[in-house]
TrEMBL record:
PANTHER family: S-ACYL FATTY ACID SYNTHASE THIOESTERASE, MEDIUM CHAIN (PTHR11487:SF0), THIOESTERASE (PTHR11487). This is Thioesterase TesA. GO terms for molecular function: fatty acyl-CoA hydrolase activity; ligase activity. Keywords: Ligase. It catalyses: a fatty acyl-CoA + H2O = a fatty acid + CoA + H(+). InterPro entries: AB_hydrolase_fold, TEII, Thioesterase. One of its GO terms (biological process) is lipid biosynthetic process. Residues 20-243 form the Thioesterase domain. It comes from Nocardia cerradoensis. Belongs to the thioesterase family. The lineage of its organism: Bacteria, Bacillati, Actinomycetota, Actinomycetes, Mycobacteriales.
Length: 250
């Protein structure tokens, strides 16, 4: 019997000596969505992209109910992987993936894994998640919600039938996000790089600055043109930002 697919995908081998970087996808997103990031970031990083249960090659597995469970499952595999090599890691997440990344970093630091940077994108700070209105639960409402998330270079959000295929994973992830809560005084030691789209109707610049309360170190905020999924149109710029941050903290 073939082994079940694991948590971490490597789409591109790093070029030369590269620091480990883990990417945490957005709600409903699969690892393959972040192939362009893997390709661009391999110049400076050894990139692993998380594949959450319940989608793509893990579609037969049940999605997990909470974001901390996702982070724990991912970290358990990371701990035994080549990315865990006593070298500081960078963890990048977008939208819901930013909260997964935050929880992943909390576990890493508690286990003695050095974290160079927590990079979050398009996300309110953890302490504010419980204040947010819940996501739609009906199919058509969810599809309308996704169609309204502007600023993506992905064909998925422009194709309602493709989006419909992603609904089971999306529903599970949104439910996990809506269950999440975090005290405002919970902090990581790692510095935070927060990024967002200037036209994002869901996450403001003020929200990004709110991440300061969740780090004992410094916060940097960077804005890009675009909406909630601005990042797909700014792969190169984000890669340059993370590479520069790595050089600053080396």
């Amino acid at each position: 019997m073939a082994a079940a697919p694991g948590w971490i995908r490597q789409f591109h081998a790093p070029r030369g000596a590269s620091a480990p970087l883990i990417i945490c996808p957005h709600a409903g997103g699969g690892a393959s969505t972040y192939r362009p990031f893997s390709k661009q970031l391999r110049e400076h990083f050894d990139v692993g992209v998380l594949q959450y249960p319940g989608r793509q090659d893990r579609a037969r597995e049940a999605a997990l109910r909470t974001l901390p469970e996702i982070a724990e499952g991912a970290f358990d595999e990371f701990a035994l992987s080549p990315w865990n090599r006593d070298e500081p890691i960078t963890v990048l997440g977008h939208s819901m993936g930013s909260i997964v990344a935050f929880e992943f970093v909390r576990i890493a630091e508690s286990e003695g894994v050095p974290v160079r940077l927590l990079a979050v994108s398009g996300a309110v700070p953890p302490g504010r998640v419980a204040e947010m209105p819940g996501h739609p639960t009906e199919d058509e409402q969810l599809l309308d919600h996704m169609a309204g998330l502007e600023g993506t270079g992905s064909d998925l959000l422009g194709n309602r039938e493709l989006m419909r295929m992603a609904l089971p994973a999306l529903k599970a992830d949104y439910a996990a996000f809506d269950r999440y809560s975090c005290p405002a005084d919970v902090r990581v030691q790692a510095p935070v790089q927060a990024m967002g789209g200037s036209d994002d109707d869901y996450v403001t610049m003020g929200d990004l600055y709110g991440w300061q309360q969740h780090t004992e170190s410094h916060l940097r905020v960077s804005m890009f043109d675009g909406g909630h999924f601005y990042l797909h149109d700014h792969v190169e710029g984000i890669a340059e930002l993370l590479a520069a941050e790595m050089e600053t903290t080396s």
